[in-house]
Amino acid sequence: MPTPQSYANYTRWDPPFHFFILPVFIIAVITAIVHAATHFTRHPIHSTMLVLFALATLAAVFKIRLNALKVQDRVIRLEERLRLATILPEPLRSRIPELTESQLIGLRFASDGELPALVQRALTEKISSAEIKKSIQTWRPDNFRV
Questions:
Q1: Intra-chain end-to-end CA distance of the chain, in Å
Q2: How far apart are CA 107 and CA 103, in angstroms?
Q3: Where are the domains of the chain?
Q4: pLDDT tens, residue by residue, 89-132
Q5: Among 13, 17, 71, 141, which residue has the least CB neighbours within 10 Å?
């Protein structure tokens, strides 16, 4: 049985990305810079292009990851608005559009029972996603994150 999710352990590490792909591309950039520094006088165009290519591929890796995370955040925002529309009482339901994207993302971990009180706090106190997550008593796991 897996460990229940909580604020202390909800961060998801993607081993292929975090421990292989990203380090390989960072090492490639460092290697290209070292190569350029040691061979620039003999091959200035080659050395410059190698560094630019290494930087561009590292930037592409980050953009690919960040685009996936942005799509995930959009889906979470939609899911939570639908969830809130079915769970919240009317005075709060009409205020769903006032919640920020960050607050909606934080609320996804809250159980249905504590959701109305957390939404009320988020709207009145303008608490952040991190504060929302720290306030959750009954954690609703999200195991399908990118």
A1: 21
A2: 6
A3: 13-74, 88-139
A4: 999 999 999 999 999 999 999 999 999 999 999 999 999 999 99
A5: 13
